[in-house]
Amino acid sequence: MIPLRLQNMSAAMRIARYDAWLLLALAGLLTARSGLAEVQPDEAVRGAEKARIASIARASTAAVAVFDTAGKGGGSGVLITADGYALTNFHVVAACGPSMKCGLPDGRIYNAVIVGIDPTGDVALIQLLGRSDFPHAVWGDSDAVRVGDWAFTVGNPFLLAYDFQPSVAWGMISGVHRYQYPAGTLLEYTDCLQTDAAINPGNSGGPLFNAAGQLIGINGRGSFEKRGRVNVGVGYAISSNQIGRFLAHLKSGRIVDHATLGATVSSDDQGRVVVDDILQRSDVYRRGLRYGDQLVRFADRPIRTVNGLKNVLGTYPRGWRVPLTYRRKGKLVDIHVRLMGLHDQAALYNMVGQEAAKPVESPRPPTPPEHQHRSPLPPDGPRPRQKTVAAAKLPAEVAQRYEARRGYANYWYNLWHQRRIWNRYQQQTAMLAAPWRIAGTLPGGEPFELSVAAKRAAATFPWGKSGALFDAELARSLSPPRSGGLLLTLHLWQRLLAKGLRQYGEVYYLGQMPLGNLGQRADCLVGIYAGIETHFYFDPESSELVGIDMFPGDETDPCEVRFADFALLADQHLPRSWMIRYGDHEFARLKIQQWHHGSRPVAVPLESPQLEEK
Amino acid sequence: MFRAWALCGMLLVFRGPVARGVETAPDRPLRTTIRSVQQRVVKIYGAGGMRNFEAYQSGLLISSEGHVLTALSYVLDTDDLAVVLDDGSRFTARLIGSDPITELALLQLPTEGRSLPWFDLQAAAGTEPGQAIVGTRVLAVSNLFGIATGAEPASVLQGVVTAMVPLDARRGQYRSNYRGLVYVVDAQTNNPGASGGALTDWQGHLLGVLGKELRSRATGTWLNYALPVREIRGVVDDMLAGRANRAADLGVAQPESPLTAAALGLALVPNILARTPPYIDAIRRHSPAEQGGLQADDLVVLVAGQPTASCQAVLEAIGQHEREDPVRLSVLRDGQLLEIELRSPK
Known about the structure:
The complex is a heterodimer.
Chain A (H helix, E strand, L loop, with lengths): L8 H23 L1 H4 L6 H18 L2 E6 L5 E6 L5 E4 L1 H4 L5 E5 L5 E10 L4 E6 L9 E2 L10 E6 L11 E14 L8 E7 L11 E4 L3 E9 L12 E5 H12 L7 E2 L2 E5 L5 E6 L4 H4 L7 E5 L2 E2 L3 H8 L7 E8 L2 E8 L1 E2 L3 H13 L11 H4 L14 H6 L3 H4 L11 H19 L3 E9 L5 E6 L3 E6 L2 E6 L16 H18 L2 E10 L4 E10 L2 E7 L6 E7 L7 E11 L2 E11 L2 E14 L16
Parallel strand pairs in A: 7-12
Antiparallel strand pairs in A: 1-2, 1-4, 2-3, 3-6, 4-5, 5-6, 8-9, 8-11, 9-10, 10-13, 11-12, 12-13, 14-21, 15-16, 17-18, 17-19, 19-20, 22-23, 22-32, 23-24, 24-25, 26-27, 27-28, 28-29, 29-30, 30-31, 31-32
Chain B lengths: L1 H14 L14 H9 L2 E5 L10 E6 L5 E5 L10 E3 L5 E3 L1 E6 L4 E5 L28 E6 L12 E12 L2 E3 L2 E2 L5 E5 L12 E4 L4 E5 L4 E2 L8 E4 H12 L20 H4 L1 E3 L11 E4 L4 H5 L6 E5 L2 E2 L3 H8 L7 E8 L2 E8 L3
Antiparallel strand pairs in B: 1-2, 1-4, 2-3, 3-7, 4-5, 6-7, 8-9, 8-13, 9-12, 10-11, 10-15, 12-16, 13-14, 14-16, 17-18, 19-20, 19-21, 21-22
């Protein structure tokens, strides 16, 4: 600090000038304070932003833009496996036919083929072709989602993405387990997620991810009103857990149907959900449910409203077995119910045909008339090709994986799965020709014997002997009594082994169902012969035959046989423990000690070696 | 010496403003806050049922005695007004009060001593004078589109308060009565069934009541707005106290050329606070007000039989009259209630 001395004028002047600059600088800085004042966000905010960006970047790689081959219409989808399976909405692919084009964010286009469809739940499975290392989404648990969680949609709203870079919209989960009424009986959104992340026309079929980038839903609907079909903060996504139950069914190439209870319910004036109508031929009636019973629990959910039941029911495929608890006169009763199909099969196929024939509605937003002539954008989309030309020629790689058949979206996949299961099963159980003589003991040590041949069979149990003749009226021979038709079941099993998939009758792959109380999934082949539908259940990994359900008719309980404790028996890999059940009662538990079978080698050929390439 | 101070000053400035921490993480997770808000929002079902005239809307529990605050609308125009709570309990509600200016209504549920969670408007957010609200992150909880039924919880949208401005809005030809301040938000609250819902901050404190499906008179844009608690507290108190229990005209027609206080020759005290009591500040000489006997310091209590708790309410109530119509004023002077009819000169 140099005190100013009048004597040292020149120095003083220098200092004064320096002070003046200082003053000016200070003044300048003070006035420019707002410009200098840079906000430094909290580190937590920066971290959250980085995590969000990373999560979105990673998840977006699996999003696809779906177009029909004529370039008209389209929507979004999401890859779920490295070999190209992708989910989208049924209403996106309904009019596309068997073939679509999919663009990935890396800019490349791939051919895709339809695999399976679920019109009621508005889900479709397609497979992109040409690669075995597609980026794919990580599956998330939709039941763990809560209102208030962040979520984001990725897709192609308004078909904006000419370069296939998807649009991303971030928002909050506004509701969970929501119910949206169907259009007719299709496109019912049960147990869906509601979000204010933007879902617009074009987003349909695309993914809803949680903040961590896991797939929790497939977007497909929104609530629209006075502003037309643009997002107003309310969009809906089909839950990933629902789709998970249907995935194997979709992979089977079929047109999949949803479950119905066989009873209708309503809320009484105390708010309890009670049965107000019930179908006598339904499984739920045979299990004891009656008019007036209060539904308390269904599958894993407490039931408090009619919508609550509709919600959980809508997430199950036809034919699944789920636990149900009801209350009558204050007492709780637990049962297991086999769910009926929602639709008559033929009616469902016709509805699908009608959806396919509908004119395609472009997901572009309506241009306000006063802006049209000023729009600098190129005209809407690629020029549509002649429809007839597009329909006639499928790309070669699609044609290789497509086979049309009534009742199937793509029979090629069903056949592939049939062969997959059968070939692996045959490798274990090839030589099991008729006749069989099976002997062993019951839990108490008493002996039993079963003999099964092409025309007749007999069973000897401590309580008596019975026989069966396999003639014209197969469905009538249901001995032994109270077994539901054990001998007929074994006969049909023999038939499948003898005739193979193509000559048994009608055989198709159903998908996967839960088997047993722990709900482990099993592959299911359905065989229909002489009006009798038989389900053959195979372990999904090993293709061991783990169970058979034989339904002699539509309105009766099946004979259920379950196999366990596989070991080498008579040079074959065979189950040594059997459990036979009919209706609500266990018929018998058997321990197999001997299994004689015919010595003639079975002339069932292995199915074609196409199995190797996929 | 000066140099030292100058240098210090510059250092201070260079350091920049105190690093403004962004809002700290909420005390409890958003999921928990949301549940507590949802429990205070109710689903209302009444009259209507046509496209653009849905028969449902939302409401808020605002007392421990089962009072529900909601939007005054055609939905309430029924003898069979049902209110369903978050837990699915269902009540038949009674309309016990309404205010045509703010277009709010008060319902009573026969809760019979049941203890229900409720929003305390006295402890609501955004009520400190001068408190900055624009930029606050908000939740909008309502039963928009009637999505939730029975025991299903109300839907939650999120956004920020983007502005606080006077409302100048319409629905069709019908102009909104309320001209006071509203919170404009970017959450899409302008949807059927949302009106009467809750606008809260991320701590679950009530900021406002979601407004009706209105569009700006200037631009035609559909507005996402809420009535701030601090603007409506007085009216709600009046309704709770039974001071505004005239069943309202549910579609008040606007006068062609409205009457004004100035035309009558009376000026009220400056409207500084939201609830400035409407004292007359001055009377113009030779005006109808002077001829009618009004004096400075009179407190205008009723206009045309309608209670007026603030200057704003008096001006709006007078503005409901055509210019040439007479208007009855009730004023309090020295503890005495005087009724005077005025008519503005042609």
